[in-house]
Design brief:
alpha+beta; Nucleoside Triphosphate Pyrophosphohydrolase; Arc Repressor Mutant, subunit A; 7 helices; elongated
């Protein structure tokens, strides 16, 4: 380093002025996109929440809930704000999924997107409020073509969901507090997009001892009815701490 450059850098550090180090650096926009999965326990289908884009480019096309991070926000704050502004949903736990940064992913401006995913119980959220914001639930098998690289984002999120479901029970976030064994099995079949053997599935689930069988029955599925279950959160956390592996 030449003497003049060293003195300038030294003076900047001493004065707490680092702005000069960012001169002539490329500026890149940072976006956040929210991938929200839900499960309809009545129809027994996995769903994805989408919104119709109301500005160009791709105006009128279906999209994930996305927006740009503001200077005063951290990533998660931006994701929560975007989700609330576009769907009315709040108090949703968001898990950071992955960063997507292909050069041409946004045709308008160089943009890096940080994707967040969430699992929610659709019966516990106001569907009318969601509709008011022009958002819509789509069955996972009927998701339309999405803008930019959002299709790839969704596929990535599904793979993460499948991995999670393969190593630990899933259902706390997606199912009602009380559910049937059939609903739990259908949830797993929707996640993995394949049929599961009923007897083996029930045997594996029961072996974990994280479900409580209730005396109540769901009488809508058959004349005989189906027993209702609920998760025991304490036993579930104990299993997690013990490092168990759940294989469907």
């Amino acid at each position: 380093m030449c003497l003049n450059r060293y003195l300038i850098t030294r003076r900047m550090v001493t004065n707490g002025d680092f702005m000069g180090t960012y001169i002539n650096k490329d500026k890149v926009l940072v976006a956040v996109d929210c991938i929200i999965f839900g499960f309809d326990p009545q129809r027994e289908v996995l769903q994805l929440l989408l919104i119709k884009r109301d500005f160009k480019p791709k105006k009128g096309r279906w999209s994930l809930m996305g927006g740009f991070m503001k200077k005063h926000e951290d990533l998660r704050e931006a994701a929560v704000r975007v989700l609330t502004e576009l769907t009315g949903l709040d108090n949703i736990y968001l898990e950071q999924l992955k960063t997507f940064g292909k050069i041409d992913r946004d045709p308008v401006e160089r943009t890096v997107s940080v994707a967040y995913s969430a699992l929610i119980n659709t019966t516990e959220h106001d569907s009318g409020l969601i509709n008011q914001y022009s958002a819509r639930w789509f069955d996972i098998s009927e998701v339309p073509d999405l803008i930019f690289d959002h299709d790839f984002m969704v596929k990535t999120a599904i793979k993460r969901l499948q991995y999670r479901a393969s190593v630990q029970p899933i259902g706390f976030e997606l199912l009602p507090e009380k559910f049937t064994m059939r609903q739990l099995q259908k949830l797993y079949e929707e996640i993995f997009n394949q049929k599961l053997d009923k007897r083996n599935f029930i045997k594996k689930i029961n072996s974990l001892k994280v479900l409580e069988k209730l005396k109540e029955k769901d009488m809508t599925s058959s004349r005989k009815g189906s027993f209702l279950y609920r998760f025991n959160h304490q036993k579930y956390q104990e299993k997690l701490k013990a490092g168990f592996v759940f294989k469907v």
